[in-house]
Amino acid sequence: PGHGGMLPAQKVTPEIARIRLVPEGKDVLSPPSHSAFSTPTGLLEFIQTLRNLSGGKPVGFKLCIGRKSEFFAICKAMVETGIYPDYITVDGGEGGTGAAPQEFSNSVGMPLREGLTFVYDVLVGFDLKKHIKLIAAGKVATGFDIVKNIALGADMCNAARGMMFALGCIQALECNRNTCPTGVATQDQSLMKGLVVEDKKVRVKNFHSQTVASAVDLLGAAGLRTPSQLTRAYVNRRVSASKMQSYLEIYPYTPTGSLLETPYPSRFELGMALSSSKSFAPTDYKVSAIDYVHANTLDE
Asked: Which of 66, 90, 149, 176 sits between 20 and 30 A of 115, alpha carbons compared?
């Protein structure tokens, strides 16, 4: 998260160049920031533009939580504009690619469990969750991973790592060099021969279907009929050598609409005080977390 990416020139084949509308054989840079907007309000206006241009197709965005005030700012912009993304994908800091710098893979971004619960609770606090589907991503590889994320607030999960393993990935960490020995992450014709589509597609299908079946089995073991019945009360986590707590105890729910008027829940006071729909940057690092009057006049 926060780094952007680059597709090396040797991986920009004629097919990729045609699809992405870029020059063949030249590096393709994807900066971490977006040139179409620079504020939370601008982000939502861009979403509406894409929705209009696509004839109403679902439009959303993906993020890994870093500075919490940024997401408060986005939610304030949603309330002010009445524009809502159809979905938000919350990526955990533990996710990533073999092409990422080690410092970013290891140290940047909030882990999925904390990031997902934060996003869900803030959306509920602004009474926005009813408009938006939440997608969880980041090391989702087992049926229990799916169950945990749905219990925390996700409507669905994305899985990449597990699917790549099923495809044949051995984590050679050469994704960016065009030298992937299994042919999974390369456009080198001699190496691509190692990826036999007719064989691998069956393995990926089997992994997907069995992972979903595992999640369904766990639901049944808990006495539930549908994933929508899952709550944080159903999953326990060991927090020390002698203590277990449910997700509900660790991450208590936020009352619906509690961020639309003061007093705010105490754990969200600082984020509310530091955020504005007009900027992704904190409004004032020195503002008091309990100065409600000042916090509510920052946008004026």
From this structure: 176
Q: What angle do CA 239, 231, 65 make, to 5 degrees?
A: 65
Query: In the prediction, which pLDDT does 285 show?
Result: 57
Q: How far is CA 70 from CA 18, 67, 274, in A?
A: 35, 6, 9
Mean pLDDT along residues 277-282? 92
Model pTM?
Answer: 0.89
Q: Choose among 194, 175, 230, 200: nearest CA to 10.
A: 175
Q: Which residue has the tokens 């955990």?
A: 92
Closest CA to 144 of 199, 219, 203, 239: 219
What's the pLDDT band for 94 if we cut at 50, 70, 90?
confident
Q: Partners of 5 in the beta sheet? A: 30
Cβ-Cβ contacts under 8 Å for 99 (sequence gap 6 or more): 5, 175, 176
Average pLDDT (164-170) is 92
Domains, the chain, in order of start with CATH, read 1-33 (no CATH), 37-159+222-288 (3.20.20.70)
